[in-house]
Amino acid sequence: MQIIKQICTSTKEQVEMMEKLQEHELGAFLHEHLKDNNRYLIVLDDVWSPSDWSCLAKRSSNDPDCLGSVFPDGGKGNRILLTTRYKEVASHADVRSTPHEMRLLSKQKSWDLFCRKAFLDIDAESYLPDLKELGEKMVDKCNGLQLAIVLLGGLLSKNMSHIEWKKVHDNMSAYLAKEGSQTGVMTVLNLSYIDLPSYLKPCFLHLSLFPEDYVISTRKLLLLWNAEGFVLEQDRQSMKDTAKIYLNELINRNLIQVVRTSVNARVMECRVHDFIRELAIEKAKEHNFIGTNIVVDPHLFPSTSSSLFSSKSHRQSIFSDFKRYASIEHYSTPYLRSLFFFNLGGIFRTSQLDFIAKCFKVLRVLDLEGLGIEKVPSIIGELIHLRYLGLRHTGLKMLPLSIGNLRNLQTLDINNLKRVPDVIWKITNMRYLYIEEQEEDDPLKIDTVQNLQILSGITFNQWIRNNSSKLTCLEKLKIEGRCELVEGVELSNSIAKLHSSLKSLYLKASNESSIPSLTMSSCPHLCKLDIKGRMQKLTETFQFPQNLSQLTLEACRLDCDPMPILENLPKLLTLRLRAGSYLGKEMHVSANGFPRLKILQLLGLSGLVMLNIEKGTMPWLMQLHFHITIKIFGLNELLNLVEVKFPFFSFGVMVMFYKIKVSFWGLTRIAGAEGGMHICRQKA
């Protein structure tokens, strides 16, 4: 009805008549009105859900079962512009096109927009330099968010005094929340929080624990959500996969920003915009999700005898001054569930960590990543409720035997240990075990940990001494270290026993040993394979997993062209040949090779000078990454290629490549990429 009122000029009597019509009758009325006009452009702003769009885009005639579009096309160039904060809505509205995503503005564009709103038609340079300096600082805090910049500029345009600008600068969030009442930044963002389904709200609140502008590893984030109990178990889907769905939902709702993706577009790192983080902190405090003060500041809290946190808070993040935090009394927070430390320098003694186990008996999550630690106190074994223990990049070389008492531990994340104590077998609830870069190769029993889903960093010798058939849930396996004493048949058999669960395998041999030839065809679910290290010979096509979709080879030192074998893998989508994987000068891809390949990387192959592509090969290849020194013949046969990327270019080489290699493309964009060149085109 609101759309009809804005489009049609109606008398009072007509409006009263229309208010009596049913929904399908209103749809038919709007359809006929638009059909009778020459042409239209309709803007639907801030559509919230796919069902809202479906309701708007469908109408019923007199027959309730007859559905058609409310908005007739008629071949007159009619257009509908839909805005939404959710990618799902945009994709649902038009499945044939790619939604245009609004990007955060660059620093210069942010300043230009601010000047247009704050200084109106007057040149910003004509104002006092101190106003410009304050303005630049405030615009930087907006981090390219257009709504915040517009509201900020409008607010400051009302008063050009330094005093008023300084007041806004010192408390931007409060001013922007009030500015425009219903359209204030925090008010608008709060609507996104209210619209979150119940299962996503704790995941969103959890983001409040990370420091401002902190780049978050998504691997770690998903593990934390699992340990916190935020992820609901679903039939036929692991909690890890469910957590990925949660993450993507928050990304599609524009509450999380993607920082880095893998070659397969998997999100590797993310961050939270400052204003969204402030909203998360505000809501987290309301629900006692976190403490009232998440940064220990000795200037704000001079007393060391009282707690800095609410007794009801369940989670704490410490960003500075660990020694001060360790020295205060913590008896007012006995029900603390999660404790995080960030950006803390220095090396800390074992005794300085004792308070954690003494004061926080029901702790579930303890993240000490990056905290310099001489040794973990044995008292940590008393934290029997602990589910997540993060010790990566701490400099630790040994773990106490009492770690075996943590029977509820689900995730242990540590690297560069001298040796792993042989007590992991006691922790039968362990699901995710990261123990990369062990210095010694002592025996390690893990085959009793039957819930294990990810095992990363076990050595070859440790692995073959375990009965892998008991690890029926293992999906991701990384084996590393010396392997000269490991027979290929023995290693193949141990991997084959994981046939019902294994999806990802990474083999990394130390410099002085070689990875034996393997048979992995009995693992039907194995779709990702990474091999780093010298190979005695490349596995034959029939020995590869037949459902393999991603393959990475590095430092394999192969003498023979690997393409005749690899091009026959029927389901391979991504192939990455990295430094030292092949030592030859030429590669040849024959006709009908790589029937499904979409991404090909040839990087660090210092000896390779030529790649010959026959007609009919790689029909679905979309991305090609290679060094510019490689001569490629048959590039114009790759009809679906939309992206070429190569590092270490000179302008002259770029021009040559443009004129000779990609002139057939209908090139639309050449852009500089970090360390190289990135060329793209629009597909027809």
Main traits of this protein?
684 residues; alpha/beta; 17-stranded mixed β-sheet; 3-stranded antiparallel β-sheet; 21 helices; globular
Could you please describe the fold and organization of this structure?
The structure is a single chain. By secondary structure, this protein is α/β, with parallel strands linked by helices. The chain is built from 21 helices and 31 strands. A hairpin with a 5-residue loop joins β6 (257-261) and β7 (267-271). The radius of gyration is 30 Å and the shape is globular. The model is unreliable at 59-67, 292-308 and 649-675 (pLDDT under 50).
Backbone structural class: alpha/beta
Q: How much strand?
A: 15-25%
Terminal CA distance: 39 Å
- Give the overall shape, derived from the CA principal axes: globular
Unreliable segments (pLDDT under 50, ≥5 consecutive)? 59-67, 292-308, 649-675
Q: Whole-number average pLDDT?
A: 82
Question: How would a textbook summarize the main sheet?
Answer: 17 strands, mixed
Number of helices: 21
What proportion of the residues is helical, as a percent range?
25-40%
- Secondary structure: number of strands: 31
Radius of gyration (CA) equals: 30 Å
